[in-house]
Fold 3-isopropylmalate dehydrogenase.
Amino acid sequence: MTVRNLFLLPGDGIGPEAMGEVRKIIAYMNEAKNAGFVTDEGLVGGCAYDAHGAAISEEDMGKALAADAVLFGAVGGPKWDSVPYEVRPEAGLLRLRKDLQLFANLRPAICYPALASASSLKPELVDGLDILIIRELTGGVYFGEPKEIIDLGNGQKRGIDTQVYDTYEIERIAGVAFELARTRNNRVCSMEKRNVMKSGVLWNQVVTATHKEKYADVQLEHMLADAGGMQLVRQPKQFDVIVTDNLFGDMLSDVAAMLTGSLGMLPSASLGAPDAKTGKRKALYEPVHGSAPDIAGKGIANPIAMIASFAMCLRYSFGLVAEADALEKAIANVLDSGIRTGDIMSAGSRQVGTAEMGDAILAEF
Amino acid sequence: MTVRNLFLLPGDGIGPEAMGEVRKIIAYMNEAKNAGFVTDEGLVGGCAYDAHGAAISEEDMGKALAADAVLFGAVGGPKWDSVPYEVRPEAGLLRLRKDLQLFANLRPAICYPALASASSLKPELVDGLDILIIRELTGGVYFGEPKEIIDLGNGQKRGIDTQVYDTYEIERIAGVAFELARTRNNRVCSMEKRNVMKSGVLWNQVVTATHKEKYADVQLEHMLADAGGMQLVRQPKQFDVIVTDNLFGDMLSDVAAMLTGSLGMLPSASLGAPDAKTGKRKALYEPVHGSAPDIAGKGIANPIAMIASFAMCLRYSFGLVAEADALEKAIANVLDSGIRTGDIMSAGSRQVGTAEMGDAILAEF
Ligand SMILES: CC(C)[C@H](C(=O)O)[C@@H](O)C(=O)O
Ligand SMILES: CC(C)[C@H](C(=O)O)[C@@H](O)C(=O)O
């Protein structure tokens, strides 16, 4: 029997509740379909800091590195707002991304038809929206050195961050974007600020060269990142795949997620390079939403983004494409049937809690 | 008689056409109201490169430095897409900002009621919207060193940009934001990425300290910049004044501008520190929109952003508050009367060209 090793890091806030619903689906797949999932679980973020003074322990890092895939909930909360910078909750997530070399972050921004009216955009602009944002995740200003605060004396300090991109980093993320575009509508839009940033100039050159050498069949467009933000708001359906750097990707994917009206519903996948021998990619799957400490522990959080992240896991880590499709379809069906958690509640729908939503999706699966 | 020195830099694309309409208003104010404007004119951007191989000449830089205020149109176009980085059209604008030390960029995002339905957001979310984004303009990743592309050999290059902020830079832009908030709804939201960037940590600390020391009467909130982008889309009216760094300000102000449905209508002011002796600030006023090369020279461009930029000039450089109010009112009245340029045309309105729009506003003024 195939063994599939999953490492679960529920984290803080609503992370554990959302992860609970995924656990049900895993159990069902093991029982009913002999899926062979073996799970282990660790701590990340504030709860890890509370337990052992670090945002993730060495032991858990080891387990994450050894697993076939990591499922990640959410980290952070007011309780840890003033812990030292090096051990803040986010540091756990950033270390996972860096040490597992998860350079490719896939953030689908799709609009569930049942929720089109929940968007702040006019429904006709988002109905049927299906964009895939590919964000570079292990480079740029997130990790470049120097990154420090220097004391200049006289009451003056200097905060420094460094944006660094090497040719190979741009090449490999561009490759992911072009490959995935081929499975979709075959269009890539690359975004940077080449009019201001040297890393943007290099980004533009390398994407252009990669396209010319290997992916000339894909339609490629370049856009300045600020104009890209505008165009996302103006006419989001013009895009198919967007590829951009770590910081712009952070901003643009959040704007795109909010546009869909389906925030709290959106999953993401962070992938490494295929292993030279096995062809396997390291991978981490996490919802786009945060830890929502204000509603944590109440059993009302929306588990859909976490479940949809597990669907991405089925697809990208285990090649279980039919199962991934079925799980995504189950989510859409449940929404169509008018079942809603509080965050997406609207008149005429039936409001349920986290567990009921999970059960409804499992029943449709 | 007061002499008021204006230096006009129409630039490229639709810049000259838009500036033409401001020239009419200046002439009228001189004639009818003895306003004492003395104008001189120079080249910036692509046209400056064509004339003398630089994005702005030393002579014109001298004139910009000597003027009471600079009116700037727009720069750039496909013609100059492959000129060397150092002399690209944008370099002229960046040099003006840096050498005139225009550290405070004021970008109002207002929704003209007559245009609320032109927004891609639902009208009720933007109707009456009035946000002021204060963007730091002479620091951050735009100007920090090193900023270069290094050849690493083996076909590999490295693109580097550096984000740098010193305490005094954050203090002075925070001061501008708090001061202006006091003239509005007394609320400031500061945006950075302190969870990832050390410059963001310092930004957050200095804004907090400045607030505590001098502006405790103003309501202050902090938001991560990615969450800020989301909130702008979700519920833009929650904001009064937003203060943020150069790069986040670039992105967020463009998103905000697009939300209003009034892009092509929005002005901006870039201000320096008050002179120790005279109290005067160096200043540059420019529309938020670009050079729109596709419609340049056709007499159809919307001159409203340029005219509204001149209204900001009347207000901030010359203290002509009544005149600024009257000019802004004239713009709103003309829109209310149903006159539109092509970019904001809608059924039932009357479409006019650049000059007619300018004349209509002048007639209302
Ligand atoms: C939590 C934070 C460090 C993270 C980021 O900035 O990358 C988050 O905003 C995200 O987009 O995943
Ligand atoms: C033209 C460009 C250099 C400029 C910037 O990035 O600042 C523009 O986008 C702006 O917002 O004024």
Q: What stands out?
A: The pocket of 3-isopropylmalic acid (ligand 1) is lined by residues A 90, 93-94, 250; B 195-196, 226 (CB under 6 Å).
